[in-house]
Amino acid sequence: MTTPTSASNPWLAALKSNEPWFVKGDLDGFFGLFIDNLLQLMLIGVLCRFVCGFPSDFITSVILPGAAISILIGNLFYGWQARMVAFKTGRRDTTALPFGINTPSLVAYVFLIMGPVYRETGNWQLAWQAGLFATLVSGVMEVAGAFVGDWMRTHTPRAALLSALAGIAITFIAMGFILQIFASPLIAILPMMLILISYASRIRWPLSLPGGFLAVIIGVSVAWILRSLGWITFITPQDAYTFGFHTPRFMPGDALSMMTSPLGWKYMAIIVPMGLFNVIGSLQNLESAEAGGDRYETKPSLLTNGIGTLVAGFFGSPFPTTIYIGHPGWKAMGARGGYSILNGVVITLLCLFGGLTLILKVIPIECTLGILLWIAIIITAQSFQEIPKPHALAVALGLIPSFAAWMLLQIETTLRVSGSSLFAMWDKFGPDLYIKGVVALSQGFILTSMVLSAATVFMIDRNFLKAAYWMFAGAALSAVGLIHAYTMTPTGIENKFGWLAAPDFAVMYALTGLILIGLHFWHLPESGEHG
Fold first, then answer.
1. What DSSP letter does each residue of 446-459 carry, written as one string?
2. Could you tell me which of 129, 122, 124 has the C-alpha nearest to residue 259?
3. Are the beta carbons of 134 and 317 closer than 8 angstroms?
4. Which of 118, 155, 213, 237 is deepest in the core (most CB within 10 A)?
5. Are strands 321-323 and 99-101 parallel, antiparallel or unpaired?
6. 476: Cβ contacts below 8 Å, ≥ 6 apart
7. From the CB of residue 4, how many other CB atoms can be counted at a distance below 10 Å?
8. Residue-level pLDDT at 452
9. How far apart are CA 42 and CA 64, in angstroms?
10. Residue 8 pLDDT > 60, yes or no?
């Protein structure tokens, strides 16, 4: 048996490489990814407590350590993966895939699974176990996706993948955070502008200080100075920080307890679409990374994603992990592989030592939002820049479903704050706001974006047969209720699954597909005189 050498073992060769593990840009990238992960941990701490009834000490001692282990596994792998790709290609600018807790799944599991179970049973432990079950199912779907992901990437136009991603970036990330920034101008505008100056102009600051680090430090300093002068106030956690080490717990019994319970399977209509969303979202992010110059293999990337989710479920965290949106933003910051490793280590230490409360007592979250805004606008710009110029039309169309989903969220939030509900006001909406269209377009908006954008790409290219295939895909998705289908109930909008769940849409998509097939056989002249 021979000993592996650098030539025969690229993993060993990459380990022995003299290339640095960390570069200056990794510090900027770390701040961006750390803040993103920190926001998810904040959501967990608040929503699990007030929506699902979880005790604070249970969140600190069980859920956060479990989440930390799942985040650490992915961050270490993707940092190492970036180093491997850099070694194989001879490039020094390879940026690791960002990784963390899946925000849409976090919100969906809290409000659509664990919250309802808690309200129905009054038992927060059952709610937690239902969340663990959902996470395990999602993890299995993500692992399965690793073996079909390359086929999906090959047969889906880049514009379809990037437009759906850009739609999420410009609405749920950029709009939400920029409104929060402009609501607190004294502590949020300056850091945001410093981020834009640093990354848009790529200027070198004195002492070569990273732009993200400089923006946060100045923002935090200004915030505390203004607060000491009595000019502003900002909210910090009221809970006292207690130093302690919280060991992650392997909990297969709790994780698998819902396998034989009707309560777990009751929410499959939510679990399956969210698992599919996670797989598709990861594929979109891989496509985004490739558009930015970094091609990563689909199978190991998605497999690690799925393993991270399964580890989360077995260690007590009811929240799936995912490859994050935002690779182009971190790449533009100069981050490479070290930022991912650093983020995984710091997040893990924070969770294991209960440091989340301590961090939030020092850093006003408004001072950090400019980093996430930058990532959102970079992704949106890339969706137009990294495709053939004629396909920009398809990208523009693909953005619209995300705006409908974001608009619905604002409507529901406004009604809830006013003491009403969408159900109570349903029949009072007039022609000034076509609420049924907003809801229908928002249901399965990621898939709708991909269908419309992909079909438009092939229409632009006059490949009418492939365009027809995508229209038939839209018909099938409508027929089973994965897009456009819903039921209005007193508790809100519910997904509607089953045969012919959205028949109007299914018929119209199918009819469009038939017309496209007709055009394919007609061979529309290049002059377009028949069009």
1. HHHHHHHHHHHHHH
2. 129
3. no
4. 118
5. antiparallel
6. 506
7. 12
8. 96
9. 10
10. no
Q: In the numeric block, which tokens belong to residue 157?
A: 């136009």
Q: How far is CA 498 from CA 476, 477, 478, 528, in A?
A: 11, 11, 10, 41
Structure tokens, 392: 């920009």
Q: How large is the average pLDDT for residues 269-278?
A: 73
**Spatial separation of the C-alpha atoms in residues 486 and 493, rounded to whole Å:** 7
User: Which amino acid type is present at position 117?
Assistant: V
Which residues, in sequence order, are bridge partners of residue 488? 493
CA distance 14 to 90: 11
Q: What residue type is 77 in one-letter code?
A: F
Return the amino acid letter for 391.
H
Amino acid sitting at position 102: N
What distance in Å separates the CA atoms of residue 299 and residue 235, rounded to the nearest whole number? Answer: 43
> pLDDT per residue over 16-62, tens digit each?
566 778 888 888 888 878 877 887 787 788 778 888 999 988 998 99
Taking residue 286's Cβ as centre, other Cβ atoms within 10 Å add up to: 24
**8 A C-beta contact, residue 75 and residue 257:** no
Cα(355)–Cα(347) distance, integer angstroms: 9
Residue 527 has pLDDT above 50, yes or no: no
Specify burial of residue 160 (Cβ count, 10 A radius: 0-12, 13-18, 19+).
buried
Task: Please state whether beta strands 486-489 and 321-323 pair in parallel, antiparallel, or not at all (unpaired).
Answer: unpaired
Residues 6+ apart with CB under 8 A from 439: 408, 486, 488, 493
374 by DSSP, 3-state: which? helix
Q: Are 42 and 356 in contact (CB under 8 A)?
A: yes
The residue type at 272: V
d(CA 469, CA 516): 9
Give phi and psi for 4, each to the nearest 5. Answer: -60, 140
Count Cβ atoms within 10 A of the Cβ of residue 529 and give its class: 0-12 exposed, 13-18 middle, 19 or more buried. exposed
Q: Let me know if 183 is exposed, middle or buried by CB neighbors in 10 A (0-12, 13-18, 19+).
A: exposed
At 465-511, the pLDDT tens digits run 999 999 999 999 999 988 999 888 887 787 787 889 999 999 999 99
Judged on CB neighbours under 10 Å (0-12, 13-18, 19+), 110 is buried
**Which residues have a Cβ under 8 Å from the Cβ of 308 and sit 6 or more positions away?**
70, 71, 73, 74, 99, 139, 321
Q: What is the pLDDT of residue 5?
A: 42
Residue 11 pLDDT class (50, 70, 90 cuts)? low
Give the C-alpha separation, 85 to 91, whole Å: 8
Residue 241 has pLDDT above 70, yes or no: no
Predicted local distance difference test score (pLDDT) of residue 531: 38
Distance CA 112, CA 225 (A): 42
What pLDDT is recorded for position 3?
Answer: 40
For residue 366, give the 3-state DSSP assignment.
helix
Among 14-28, 167-181, 200-214, 448-462, which range has the highest average pLDDT? 448-462
